[in-house]
Design a protein that fits this description.
Chain A: Its cofactor is FMN; heme b. The complex is a heterodimer. By secondary structure, chain A is mainly alpha-helical. Helices cover about 75% and strands about 0% of the residues of chain A. Chain A is globular and about 65 Å long. Chain A starts with 11 loop residues before the first helix and ends in an 8-residue tail after the last helix. In chain B, the strands form 2 sheets. In chain B, strands 1, 4, 5, 8, 9, 10, 12 and 13 form an 8-stranded mixed β-sheet that branches. In chain B, strands 3-2-11-6-7 form a 5-stranded mixed β-sheet. Classes of the chains: A mainly alpha, B alpha+beta.
């Protein structure tokens, strides 16, 4: 099965740090282009949208880790924390850009936006839910919280759905791009209830002689 | 784009012009795609010549105008603010002529109350009009009340920055109504019809709670999903140019046009 050669164990730690470094490249290059006036048209909005979109992409990548292991037997779980934290940082930067660069910290307008406009309310809720997940993303919290940690981190399903909805509701016409993100999130969420049955079936296959196994 | 001769006019705002590269590369023209850069990127196959605009309906003398006829109207340069419904704005030096001069040629009947406009449909040249996903029903349609259409500020533009319009800006001829949100400025017009009924408008059909028929720029009436109180001026350099400014009632043209709406509830007729 394993078509991809496994990364030697001694590079695991370094590969996680490389992921963090790579993960921040879109934000840094976007900020540089925007600050130097090289983003076309509405630079602040372009940057704000870039950060939000990468937040959603990292959320989707986080949700891919489990199905990749289930379906292809590739275990990338060591990257899941980094992907989740990257999602958190991007969503936080997306919100900060809206707050500072876009709205100039005009709090009455910002609070009215959050209260009155459903797509902003939903986005804000997703950010708020991401905070406890980011705060408990360390080994100590995992040990201390035990089973409660797993329950808490199921919030990511709601967050991903909220993120995709926030994106779709923010545009004037829901186009192919929004549809792709909604579809990806939907498939990844639907995998969760299917997964126990699939894994059970898979284990039953392994117990039988190879000529009887389904392909 | 070819150079256009135009006489200066008194209609010009005293604000810095939006750079030409922003005016021609940051556009909403869904016939060429949903992204702001799509119209510039995807409109290369569009053929704006030859062109005819048919003007008819409740008029005494219906007529087909070739582009060469339209270019014979005395052209003026009008420097207008342009406020998009998405809360960004530009200052654009248009070249065009009053819509009223065109309407005079066809002699609207006394019964005509509105003017309806229609954009060309050419799926083979406009990628947004073909394929599985089409964002809006075509043709794009718009309308004005006759008194709005006859207002001296309302022009048909055939150029900007002293040159003929590029495809992404609505070549060869488009509407410019500076006190209304940009989507009223229908592009690549092929048909103008005088009528006694309020004509349909594309964005109003697509989302009636978000886009009204009038679509006058109004900082006091929010779009359901964003505030219209302020706007972002395009092309004022990067993140820290201080480009957010207050939106003005009727986009700063209240002195000229507010009287058109005397006694109307502008929150209801948004």
């Amino acid at each position: 099965m394993a078509a991809i050669p496994a990364l030697p164990r001694k590079y695991h730690g370094a590969s996680i740090w490389a992921l963090y470094a790579l993960g921040f490249v879109p934000a840094i290059s976007g900020f540089y282009l925007g600050a130097t006036g090289q983003l076309p048209g509405n630079a602040i909005k372009e940057f704000e949208h870039l950060l939000g979109l990468w937040g959603l992409r990292f959320l989707i990548a986080t949700l891919c880790i489990t199905p990749i292991r289930d379906l292809f037997g590739i275990n990338w779980i060591r990257y899941r924390r980094a992907l989740g934290l990257l999602a958190f940082w991007y969503v936080l930067m997306h919100f900060s850009t809206y707050l500072i660069l876009d709205k100039y910290l005009d709090f009455p307008t910002i609070l009215a936006d959050i209260a009155k406009r459903p797509f902003i309310t939903i986005g804000m809720a997703a950010l708020v839910m991401l905070v406890p997940l980011a705060l408990t993303s360390n080994n100590l919290s995992i040990r201390r919280l035990g089973a409660r940690w797993i329950r808490l981190h199921k919030l990511v399903y709601i967050i991903a759905a909220a993120g995709a909805l926030h994106y779709a509701l923010s545009v004037k016409v829901v186009g192919p791009q929004q549809s792709i993100y909604i579809g990806l999130v939907a498939v990844l969420l639907l995998w969760r209830p299917i997964r126990p049955r699939y894994n059970q079936w898979r284990r039953a296959q392994v117990g039988r002689p190879s000529f009887e196994r389904a392909r | 784009a070819a150079a256009l001769e135009a006489s200066p006019s008194a209609f010009k705002v005293g604000e810095a012009l939006t750079p030409e590269k922003d005016v021609t590369n940051y556009n909403n023209f869904y016939e060429f795609g949903l992204g702001k850069g799509d119209p510039a990127a995807n409109s290369g196959d569009f053929q704006p010549t030859p062109w005819t605009v048919s003007v008819g309906g409740m008029v005494a003398k219906p007529k087909e105008f070739g582009l060469e006829d339209l270019l014979k109207f005395p052209l003026e340069e009008r420097i207008y603010r342009m406020r998009c419904v998405e809360a960004w704005s530009m200052v654009i030096p248009w070249v065009g002529f009053p819509l009223a001069s065109l309407l005079d040629k066809v002699e609207p009947l006394g019964s005509a109350k509105y003017v309806a406009f229609e954009t060309v449909v050419r799926p083979e040249q406009m990628p947004g009009q073909s394929g599985y996903f089409q964002p809006l029903p075509w043709p794009y349609v718009e309308g004005l009340r006759l008194d709005e259409a006859r207002h001296p500020l309302t022009i048909l533009a055939v150029g900007l920055y002293g040159k003929t319009l590029l495809n992404q800006n609505g070549a060869p001829i488009r509407l410019v109504v500076p006190w209304k949100y940009g989507f009223k400025g229908i592009k690549s017009i092929v048909k103008i019809t005088l009528t006694d009924k309020q004509p349909p408008s594309t964005w109003n059909i697509a989302a009636p709670n978000e886009y009204g028929f009038y679509a006058n720029v109004n900082p006091a009436v929010d779009h359901p999903r964003w505030s219209q109180a302020t706007e972002n001026r395009i092309g004022e350099g990067g993140f820290f140019g201080g480009s957010r400014r207050d939106t003005l009632p009727f986009n700063g043209y209240a002195d000229e046009v507010a009287s058109l709406y005397a006694g109307m509830d502008l929150a209801k007729n948004f």
